[in-house]
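Render CMP/dCMP-type deaminase domain-containing protein in 3D.
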Amino acid sequence: MKLTEFYSLRNDFTIIGLTGRLGSGCSQIAGSLKDEKFIKSQTPKIIDSKSSLEDLKHKISFDFLAYDGNWVPFQVINYKNILLLHLLFECIKGERIEDWIFDITDTLTQNGKSINPQTKNRFDKKEDSNFIDNEFTSFLRSNQDYLMGFRAKFNFEKSLSENLQNKSMVYQLYFEGVFIKFCDDFYQVLNSYNMIKRTRFTHDIALYLRANGTVKKKELNLELKHINTIANTINRIVKAWRKETKKPTRFVIDSLKNSLEIMYFKEKFSAFYMVASNKTEADRLQSIKDANRKYGHNDPEDNIALTFLDDEEFKTNDFKAGKFYSPDIEHCIQKCDYHIFIEGEIKETEKKYVSFEDQLIKLVALIKKPGLVTPSINEHFMQVAYNSKSNSGCISRQVGAVVTDEQYSIKAIGWNDVPENQVPCGLRDLGHLINGENSFMFSKFEKSGSNYDDGVSFKLKAEKEYQNANVIHLDGRICNFCFRDFHNAFEGEKNQVHTRSLHAEENAMMQITKFGGVGIKGGKLFTTASPCELCSKKAYQLGIKEIFYIDPYPGIATTHTLKNGTDEELNPELIMFQGAVGRGFNKLYEPFISQKDEIAILTGLKPKAKIQDKLKTLTKNPSLQEKIAKNFEGKSASEQQELFDKYLNSILEK
């Protein structure tokens, strides 16, 4: 009996979203996923008595995908190609090629050369006039026929979203025509001239589309009306493929940098998996240099400009200020279901990381067949840390941590939260402090503490902030507040000491002491965020040898605290996590039915006792066994079982 329909939803529809910092390897993952020969190009592991269980799991995953028909390549949707689709739709509405060239170049240079040194790397009409008037214009003119054909597909009295409801047209445009080649050539021309300006250009129009629904520069709108403009276009392309081909839908999106777009796909598709691509900082920066050098650019300032833009897209300052149209790669990584780490060189003698190819093989095998293998030991403990962070009452960021000994025996679990017998920030209402309600929740300092330099108390300052806030927008929620942020603002400082919460790693390590200390020298720390300087010092002092983390924590803990030992071999090793976590952990490792039952159904492999052996349980008399056995002759297996049950019941009744 085949169970094809059992897994049809997984096999017929899967979307993988990629995210990661600039140079982290997203395109490398996308390239492997779309490669028809990816599995055939891999060398299967040789398993012997010295192989680890993880080697065996990867061999099982490989053999499964290598079986005929199990590896199905993915279609790649390149995010910047979707941006170009929007740009072309808005810029070729005119009748003449001259109008198109003017509108496209006007959009390309709409920001001009900024006086801000941080964002001056943009296309400018004057500074880049030679390139625009020659190479770029020549490229557009050479593609006049394609642009005319592109234009003919659209009704410009309707919006792009309305046009994309025509699934047949979308399929012809995106999959049957030369749109992808045009995109590749378009970006090749821009990259060859200046990759930094090209990168800034796509960064800018993505902002405008998410903020205002257009590639044209306008004052950025803080409302969320257009936040899913690009995501909706991607969804239309996926739908067009499904309707027109009737083939399995397998797409990889390269790459997503806005966490609200990720939530859009997670809410819309249950078979959506978000994957983070990571490298060491040195390897990532080298990848940026190599990409720049590929187009003949070797200026160190170009690399600095790219890394600055990368920092801008990674950090979440704009996002925290309500500018949700901005990239927030840090949040994107936190929302990922699976983490792939691409190491420059795998060290066979002291192997800390699984190869990039093995990670990808395991992911795809588990998507296709959940529960095919069990989690790695590192995945298991990181999932415990991940689940524990939900207990955190911190309103800024939730972090979970697990401490084990050298043999992976859990000694403590912790999350960032206030000390015992205090009320977490997530349960405290600023309005209650102002109005004198639930006073037990607040400290003496908050209620009637010493005045600041201007003679005003914390409570009075907080009351002024509260009165100026639009608390009516909370729609019934309590108004939580972060004491550290308020106190630092009132003092004009930025001091982490004033936080009410213990850090997750700190909390876990203190639990060991609180309930009877046990040695953890040589042990391991699993944390959903890499430890800060203070927690790193504690881990170092306790003899923690390996620290596994998902999300880098800002600061100098790695380069200063953890690498400061006189004997380098005693320094704790910081290891970026590889594998599934969170929702993805359960989706990938929870089988639809038990493997034993599934194998029995598929193969009929279910050992059955012979009737002669069963009769021995009824009587020890051989002659009586032989006499009873004659009654079973000529009967089917089910009839034999029914007759045996009757004999057994009669004996039990007696």
